[in-house]
Structures are given as C-alpha cells and as structure tokens.
TrEMBL record:
The keyword Oxidoreductase applies. Belongs to the uricase family. One of its GO terms (biological process) is purine nucleobase metabolic process. This is Uricase. Signal peptide: none annotated. The active site is at 13 (charge relay system), 58 (charge relay system), 242 (charge relay system). InterPro entries: Uricase, Uricase_CS. Its EC number is 1.7.3.3. GO terms for molecular function: urate oxidase activity. Catalyzes the oxidation of uric acid to 5-hydroxyisourate, which is further processed to form (S)-allantoin. It comes from Ornithinicoccus hortensis. 5-hydroxyisourate binds at residues 154, 171, 214, 240. It is an enzyme of class 1 (oxidoreductase).
Length: 293
C-alpha cells in the first residue's frame, strides 16, 4: 500500500511545429504554428500500475495534429477546438485537456504568390482549456516591441537613501508587450478579434500621457475592456526597456532628450492583471501559463 496519491496530471505532445500551405490556386497561403496537446482525465492506472490502456500515445496526439491540419487551420483557436472535440469525444476517460498554439506571421515578398518573409514581430498565442463541457479560450501575443519618444514620465515615487533616479516628465517609454486575454465566449471570429484587440492595445499605448508603465498597462486594459465585449480579463507582462539620456557634457554638448543609451539589462518588469468590473475571474484556466501571462 503506497502513501502517495496522484493529485493531478496532464500529458501530451508539446511544440509540434506545423506549417500548412493552402495551394488551391497559384497564390499560396501559409500558416505556421507551434501546437501543444495535453490530455486530462482518468489516467490513474497508468501512474499507479503502469497500465497504459488509457494512455493515448503522445505520438498519436502528434499525428492527429498533422492529420487535422490537412483539412485546414482557420484560426489557432478553431484548430485547438477541433483537437479538443476529437480527444474528448473519442476517448471516454479523456474529460478535458489543455491545447495551446503559437502562430508566427508571414507576409508576401513584393506581393509574390509563393515567396514569404517572417513579418509579424509578435508571436500570436492561443490556449484552450476544456473541463467537461466547459471551454475557456485565452489568447494573446508576445514580442510586440513598441516605443513612444515622449508623453511619458515618472515622478512622485518615494525617495530613500538608495534612490538616485531623477524625476522626469519627458522620457522614452519602450517595452515588448506580452499579453493574454480571456474570452467570455467561444462565439467569436478569432482572427478578426485578434487583429482588432492588437490594434486597440497599440493605439492605447500612445493615446495618453503615461505616468508610469503601470499606468500604461491600465490604459491598454481599459481600452480593451471598453471596446471588446468578448473579453473579460487581460494580463500583461512588460519589461521597461530603459533609455537613459547620454551625458555629453565631456564634449560640451547639451542633450535635450535626443541621444540615449538603450540599456539591455537590468530592466523593470511590470506585470498586472485586469478584469471587467463584475465579471467572474477564472484562475483555473490560467494555470500552466508560464510566467505572469
Ligand atoms: O514606469 C515606471 N515604473 C516603475 O515602477 C519604475 N521604476 C523605475 O525606476 N522607473 C520606473 N518607470
């Protein structure tokens, strides 16, 4: 008799690099994804006894992903939904799971029919968590580098013996936006919603004076919640990519915020979660998302 109990599990094939070319006409389309499938359910016997009768092989999960891609992708969220439907309906003991995708953006070289370059700076992300009939979609992106050359400051912070940072009401603000938002519905045109939310976030980054990156995160979150009723929560993880004005006094030059040293590290790391007023949060759906978001 063991004194160890299985208290949770999920398993599958991670990071299936999947490229799908649509070539019905001479003008090809490319979809480039990194797909992870993980099943949840009754896998007790596999862990306790080495009985694999419930263990849908990770190799089979991988093959399913590539096979389903033969019929098209559409959007990462729709593709993950097809996988979730398949695994939960084909195997009684699979009660849910977690399916995730990253999508890399490509554009045509000079409008060429079948020649592309990696274009979108950001990587799109999608996660589908399924528990019985309950489905939660969390989508987002990372790696969207943005910068505003003014209309940002940082003043009013506490000063102690360790404080050397001068206050400023005119600085560069730069960050690599990583964010994820939780949809409150699956009845969404996911591709259109993704583009619209990304646009809202980018416009909000520059729309108002920023008193801190924390303030900017709130401004972006507020714009998303106001303009996108399909979203109930949004989380951000954003480095403050410091740009320090370079001291040019040794060459008798002034520097009215024109020459900067772009510091690589350390960087501020500013993270926050926001939710629509009155909306239920769904912390369990966020479990497994590495880092803050
Ligand atoms: O926008 C900022 N937020 C901070 O918390 C912070 N701390 C700091 O040194 N500079 C900044 N800038």
């Amino acid at each position: 008799m063991s004194n160890v109990t299985l208290t949770g599990s999920q398993y599958g094939k991670a990071e299936n690099r999947l490229v799908r070319i649509t070539r019905d006409t001479d003008r090809h389309e490319i979809e480039d994804l990194n797909v992870t499938s993980q099943l949840r359910g009754d896998f007790d016997a596999a862990h306790y006894e080495g009985d694999n009768s419930h263990v849908v092989a990770t190799d089979t999960q991988k093959n399913t992903i590539f096979s389903f891609a033969r019929d098209g992708i559409g959007s990462p969220e729709e593709f993950l939904h097809r996988l979730a439907e398949h695994f939960t309906s084909s195997f009684d003991w699979v009660s849910g799971g977690r399916w995730a995708a990253e999508q890399f953006g490509w554009s045509r070289i000079a409008d060429h029919d079948h020649t592309f370059y990696r274009s979108a700076p950001e990587v799109r992300t999608a996660v589908l968590v399924r528990d019985g009939d309950d489905e939660t979609y969390i989508s987002g992106f990372y790696g969207l580098t943005v910068l505003k050359s003014t209309a940002s400051g940082f003043v009013g912070y506490p000063k102690d013996p360790y404080t050397t940072l001068p206050e400023t009401e005119d600085r560069i603000m730069a960050t690599d936006i990583a964010c994820r938002w939780r949809y409150n519905t699956s009845d969404v045109d996911f591709n259109a919603s993704y583009e619209a939310i990304k646009k809202t976030i980018m416009e909000a980054f520059g729309a108002e004076y920023s008193k801190a990156l924390q303030h900017t995160l709130f401004q972006m979150a507020e714009a998303v919640v106001e303009n996108h009723p399909e979203v109930d929560e949004i989380r951000f993880s954003c480095p403050n990519k410091h740009h320090f004005t370079s001291d040019l006094s040794h060459t008798n030059q002034d520097n009215p915020n024109v020459v900067f040293y772009a510091a690589d590290r350390p960087y501020g790391l500013i993270e926050a979660n926001f939710a629509r007023e009155g909306a239920a949060t769904k912390d369990e759906a966020w479990v497994g998302i590495a880092g803050y978001c």
